[in-house]
Structure formats: structure tokens, C-alpha cells
């Protein structure tokens, strides 16, 4: 077990993990020290820009039975972004090859079909040993690895707690909304 992981426990199928608090002088929590390419504009997307926000991380796919969750994710983002919630999409072709397009095709699909405005990174790997380092860290902290598209990780404002939710958890799930509200306080 990694030394940074202080404790984890399972609550009603959710994996809740705590990591040591970040020193107040640190501008960016270590968990967020990753930079990706933005899906919509191809520009660097440093996760440190979301320090102090509640972040809902979701691995996405355009041709999945859960793809309609884009609609709920966008509504959630639009409703709570001014309170400090960021929905962050990670398109991946890891499960059932359900994200075969390139970044432009994915961005166009998300914008035209679901009106997605929440930030998304360029297509990436989220499972196995080749997963991007951010996803490897989220899985390590929570003990929960994505088993399919639309797996979710909710990160609190100071990035000291991460809660994992399966693909079956919809964006309007009462337990998810309750935890988001708790983290936004």
C-alpha cells in the first residue's frame, strides 16, 4: 500500500479514500500535477488550474450504452460550475472500442449531440498498466479501477479525498449529488 494513502473504506459500494492534506502554501495538490491536451482546442490543459474546485472525473465514450450520461453531466456542470464544480471528461477507447474517433470527431460529437461545454482532455488510456498517470493514481488511491466507460471519480476541493462511482451511477444519482454538495461546502 502506498504511503500517501492513509485509509480507504467501502460505503454502500463506493470507495472513499483519504490522502494527507496538502500544505497551505502549495499552489497545486500533488494529485493534480498533471497536464493533458485539451480535446476542444488542442492546447495544454493543466489540472492544477482546477485546484480549489470539486472535480468529477469521467472516462467517456461516444458509442456506449452509457453515452447518454453526457446530457446529465453537462446539466450538472452548467448548474454547479459557478459553485465550484468541474466535470472533466477523459475520452477513451479502452472498453469495447466504443471511442474510435480522433479528437476532432469526439469534440464535434460531444458538442453537436449533447452540447458539452465541460472541459475534456484528448483521447487517452484509462485502464491497465498503460493508463495515463492521473488515472493510475486515482485507481491507486481509491482501489477502484474503471471497469467500463463512464466510471466516475469525485475529488474534493483540496484533493485530499477521492470517491469512486461505477458506470451505473448516473449524474443525477442522489448519493453522487449528496457527496458533490458535501464537497462544495
UniProtKB/TrEMBL annotation:
One of its GO terms (molecular function) is peroxidase activity. Keywords: Oxidoreductase, Peroxidase, Signal. Residues 13-185 form the Thioredoxin domain. Residues 1-23 form the signal peptide. The keyword Glycoprotein does not apply. InterPro entries: Glutathione_peroxidase, GPX_AS, Thioredoxin-like_sf, Thioredoxin_domain. PROSITE patterns: GLUTATHIONE_PEROXID_1 (PS00460), GLUTATHIONE_PEROXID_3 (PS51355), PROKAR_LIPOPROTEIN (PS51257), THIOREDOXIN_2 (PS51352). Pfam families: GSHPx. The keyword Protein transport does not apply. SUPFAM superfamilies: Thioredoxin-like (SSF52833). It comes from the Bacteria. Belongs to the glutathione peroxidase family. This is Glutathione peroxidase.
